[in-house]
């Protein structure tokens, strides 16, 4: 889908919560949630990070206290992507305060329509309210929405994160963007009568990132081959996350360089339906700065690239 | 060598610094950016009262002296406040062109008005296909009777929306890439045939696409000798390039300071994240970049103020913009990365500094362009 530029389904369902549900959910939960995810009937969002639990995710403080057949959830999640459209949220919540921080976390599925949930939008650098803080004020969640065992949520969370990281690599998407970039450069004047693709400096940079993506593609294929014989993606998903996000970000830089002055206008209304005014800059060129700014988040989310290096240092290199 | 500022420069720095600290905090700037005009007319008048608008001009033009070091001093402080008032467009670029090319009558007509804050100008250079090559000019100005008729489109003209007059770079003879045949005309922004497509740029500054269709101007609209404007244009663009490089140094200094401060207070894993050596080394790298950027801008400013040849001056500016460009990319990206998610939000100033330095990177020639220009000079 990435290779052909098709709109991808929101990753939070199919690629993130689904693997957790089919690996750790009970039969009832699989029947209840998976078909709707497969058919994209339900929009999922993520409740992981908190204002004071970012890279140190396990220090999260949102609590779920058991009362009869329900948990009562209180706390604040942040960097919640597009929750304003979501039907359900999967959340990491603290169910035990008395043990090591990783051991008191549970994995809860919460209907976004439940009373007590409010969202405050956060506007990002491109001017769009893409993420939210999600506030939980005495939110009642039925106990049957707990995935797996109480206090084992960190294990499931990590599995989800390895899937998220593998997904973040976005090799097909990068390949498509590179192909388009090459075409764009071939049709962009260099200011001296040639095209930008004739410019040896630009050509070299483009080739370097193409080579990087090629190496990344085969790193990803090796990971997927391991997954296909039943292994969950392990610490190597950190490679994909680091290299994948950096490649995307570098491609964004090149788009801006191609756009030159026309990377600078901020005219979001020209991308809306029914706009009939004068366009400023063409297509991907016109959005290049905002894409560049917005995608700086990629090396931060899903466990920052620094956290990925910690994982490689500890889990792979044994340092 | 003595790198200390003169008493006058020190006073100039203090006065701009005091303004930025006292009257140009992030919230104030945000309100200004979101206002209809996109800059504060009150502050513009204040700049005039304080004499800052005279800084880019020589004493014989009635200015403060016109030294590049003075300009650097002002721009660095503006960079710390991300000042959006059109100082660069009106005084450095447009005022610079009038000063370089203008007749006595044209100077009298415009320079005093600029310095008094009564005239807004914009210089229309870039075209959709020109990238950073100043000699690539497709806009034409043809002789018609006593005057000229100008046609063409100029892109991303900073201060275009507020300008009373536009300085339009147009071709009076020759082919698209010829160095000869380039002229500059003073065109009333409201002249018949001028249409302005205004917008806000990603850094909050206002700019416009300017379409000129058979715009008639009289002979006295020509600035300087017909067809001979390119060298002066290059000199003025280089001064503007130095100015934004100095502005970048101010912005980068803030990005570094804010990042270091943040890592002292932000706690994860039970400690301030600034205690992690992995981050310490990266902030040390940011510091090195900031210092090299500052050093090379000082070098270029001193070169512009010296008796060096035009080629040596151009080479110094190319070197500065190239090196500052590298610093902007590294320090800007690292400031955002080390802050984490909060820096990709609109609410924190760090993202806005990042946007400003990214804009500067792509103005007047990006890093690759300036590096290759340096190599060719």
The whole-angstrom Rg of chain B is 21 Å
Proportion of beta-strand residues of chain B: 15-25%
Q: Got a strand count of chain A?
A: 9
Biggest β-sheet of chain A: count, sense, barrel?
A: 4 strands, mixed
Give the class-level CATH name of the largest domain in chain A.
Mainly Alpha
CATH superfamily of the largest domain in chain A: Butyryl-CoA Dehydrogenase, subunit A, domain 3
Biggest interface, CB < 8 A: A-B, 50 and 49 residues
- SSE ordering of chain B: HHHHHHEEEEEEEEHEEHHHH
Oligomer: heterodimer
What is the overall shape of chain A?
globular
Secondary structural class of chain A: alpha+beta
Number of discrete helical segments of chain A: 9
Query: What's the name of the CATH homologous superfamily of the largest domain in chain B?
Result: Butyryl-CoA Dehydrogenase, subunit A, domain 3
- What separation lies between the terminal Cα atoms of chain A? 38 Å
Main-sheet strand order of chain B equals 1-4-5-8
CATH architecture of the largest domain in chain B: Up-down Bundle
Q: What spatial form of chain B do the alpha-carbon principal axes imply?
A: globular
Mean pLDDT across residues of chain B? 97
Q: Let me know the largest β-sheet of chain B.
A: 4 strands, mixed
**Number of self-contained structural domains of chain B:** 3
Helix-and-strand structural type of chain B: alpha+beta
């Amino acid at each position: 889908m990435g290779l052909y530029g098709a709109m991808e389904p929101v990753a939070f369902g199919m690629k993130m919560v689904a693997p957790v549900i089919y690996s750790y959910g009970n039969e009832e939960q699989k029947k209840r949630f998976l078909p709707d995810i497969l058919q994209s009937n339900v929009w999922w969002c993520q409740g992981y990070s908190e204002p004071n639990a970012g890279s140190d995710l396990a220090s999260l403080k949102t609590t779920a206290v058991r009362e009869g057949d329900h948990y009562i959830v209180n706390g604040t999640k942040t960097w919640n992507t597009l929750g304003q459209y979501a039907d359900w949220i999967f959340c990491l919540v603290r169910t035990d305060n008395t043990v090591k921080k990783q051991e008191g976390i549970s994995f809860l599925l919460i209907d976004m329509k439940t009373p007590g949930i409010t969202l405050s939008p956060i506007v990002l650098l491109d001017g769009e309210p893409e993420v939210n803080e999600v506030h939980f004020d005495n939110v009642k969640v039925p106990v049957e929405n707990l995935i797996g065992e109480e206090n084992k949520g960190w294990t499931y969370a990590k599995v989800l994160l390895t899937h998220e990281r593998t997904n973040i690599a976005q090799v097909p998407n990068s390949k498509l963007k590179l192909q388009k970039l090459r075409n764009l450069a071939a049709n962009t004047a260099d200011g001296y009568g040639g095209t930008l693709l004739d410019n040896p400096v630009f050509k070299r940079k483009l080739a370097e990132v193409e080579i990087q993506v090629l190496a990344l593609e085969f790193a990803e294929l090796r990971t997927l081959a391991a997954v296909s014989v039943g292994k969950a993606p392990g610490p190597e998903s950190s490679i994909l996350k680091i290299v994948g996000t950096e490649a995307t970000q570098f491609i964004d830089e090149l788009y801006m360089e191609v756009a030159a002055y026309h990377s600078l206008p901020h005219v979001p209304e020209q991308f809306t339906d029914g706009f009939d005014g004068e366009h400023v800059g063409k297509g991907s060129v016109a959005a290049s700065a905002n894409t560049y700014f917005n995608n700086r988040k990629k090396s931060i989310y899903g466990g920052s690239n620094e956290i990925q290096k910690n994982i490689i240092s500890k889990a792979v290199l044994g340092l | 060598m003595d790198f200390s500022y003169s008493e006058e420069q020190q006073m100039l720095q203090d006065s701009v610094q005091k303004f930025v600290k006292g009257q140009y905090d992030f919230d104030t700037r945000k309100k200004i950016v979101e206002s209809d005009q996109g800059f504060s007319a009150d502050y513009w008048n204040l700049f005039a009262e304080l004499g800052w608008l005279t800084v880019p001009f020589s004493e014989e033009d009635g200015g403060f002296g016109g030294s590049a070091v003075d300009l650097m001093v002002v721009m660095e402080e503006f960079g710390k406040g991300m000042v959006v008032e059109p100082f660069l467009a009106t005084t450095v670029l447009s005022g610079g062109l009038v000063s370089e090319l203008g007749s006595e009558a044209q100077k009298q007509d415009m320079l005093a008005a600029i310095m008094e804050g009564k005239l807004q100008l914009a210089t229309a250079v870039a075209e959709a296909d020109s990238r950073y090559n100043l000699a690539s000019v497709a806009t034409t100005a043809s002789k018609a009777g006593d005057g000229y008729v100008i046609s063409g489109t100029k892109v991303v003209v900073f201060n275009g929306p507020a300008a009373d007059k536009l300085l339009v770079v147009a071709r009076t003879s020759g082919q698209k890439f010829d160095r000869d045949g380039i002229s500059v005309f003073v065109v009333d922004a409201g002249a018949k045939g001028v249409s302005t497509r205004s917008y806000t740029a990603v850094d909050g500054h206002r700019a416009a696409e300017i379409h000129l269709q058979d715009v008639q101007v009289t002979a006295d609209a020509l600035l300087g000798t017909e067809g001979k404007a390119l060298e002066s244009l290059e000199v003025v663009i280089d001064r503007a390039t130095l100015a934004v490089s100095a502005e970048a140094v101010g912005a980068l200094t803030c990005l570094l300071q804010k990042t270091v401060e943040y890592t002292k207070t932000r706690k994860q894993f039970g400690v301030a994240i600034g205690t992690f050596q992995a981050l310490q080394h990266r902030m040390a790298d940011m510091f090195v970049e900031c210092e090299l950027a500052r050093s090379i801008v000082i070098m270029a400013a001193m070169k512009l103020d010296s008796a060096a040849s035009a080629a040596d001056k151009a080479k110094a500016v190319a070197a500065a913009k190239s090196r500052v460009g590298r610093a902007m990319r590294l320090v800007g990206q690292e400031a955002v990365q080390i802050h984490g998610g909060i820096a990709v939000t609109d609410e924190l100033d760090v993202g806005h500094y990042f946007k400003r330095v990214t804009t500067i990177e792509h103005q007047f020639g990006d890093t690759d362009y300036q590096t290759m220009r340096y190599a060719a000079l």
